[in-house]
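Take a specimen:
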Amino acid sequence: MRSSDFIQHTAEYIARVQQPSGAIPWFPEGTLDPWDHVEAAMGLSVAGYIDEAEAAYWWLVGRQRDDGAWLAAYDGESVADGTRAETNFVAYVATGVWHHYLISGNHRFLNDMWPMIDRAMDFVLSMQAPSGEVYWALDTRTGINKDALVTGCSSIYKSLECAINAADLLGENAPHLAAARSELGTTLRSRPERFDRTWESKSRYSMDWFYPVMTGVIEGEAARRRLAQRWQTFVEPDLGCRCVADQDWVTVAESCELTLACLATGASGPARELFSKLARYQAEDGSWWTGYAFADDVMWPDERPTWTAGAVLLAADALNALTPASQLFTTVSLPDSLQHAQRQGLVQRLK
């Protein structure tokens, strides 16, 4: 299949599953969560489904809570899981909207979305600990869950970058976003004891390994070393990236995100090699299986989520520069004024 056909075939599946309201469930008749809804919407943007992508963001506008958050899951227009609001789910809207703006150039849309982004980030930053990490979730029954996830906080770090860029372009005064991002990055890089304090370590999950690279928390030689250290643990030759180190299961979304992480370190060869092995996991209708249990030689689970299709499209864009947003997850881009201020701050600290 030609690359243009492959892109359209994948995006058509997402568009077919999208509901008239703009909601993008995991699969037909399924539920959605805010993070995966945005991931699927970004896939639509990559393929040029501009109106459909914008409808997905307007769906979020209509369901944002007074505190700026969204709940864990929705079923159509109803709440499917109201037990919590996860901070990385809430923050991700900034990444999605900025991604869409980079592709569409629609300044009016970005301006219309800013109040939603601003309220979402206010919620997220209200959950930032004094030590820099962002707490995982607000439990609607018991209050703030005061522990943090490396993967979730890394995703928030990228979302803060996107929110900063949106604020700068729109002329919004938002220095608190840069300060929060700086504090979060420092904690992610130098204070591992602030994560997984009250539950079992998530280090057996591949996302904890590559997300700090994919989101720009760790860059340069340190990022290359990080990927090299556990490459053989997580990457199954010719099949893809394991989701969990001790399970014989590779997943398409993690493989696509690791592709992005490789590109962020300049390792285009491994990125292309990894992505090239995934075509076998696409179904005839354009959808993508969640993963492959290779010990049993079976696609598992029996699901083909829209967010997996979205992850495929993001990786394809990064590899082939299909859109102006192709480098969003492979580079760190901040306003010139902020970069200058950060350089000046570093000079002052070194004196």
Remarks:
- The beta strands are 73-75, 78-81, 84-86, 137-139, 143-145, 235-236, 240-242, 249-251, 291-293, 298-299.
- Residues 150-170 form the longest helix (21 residues).
- The longest strand covers residues 78-81.
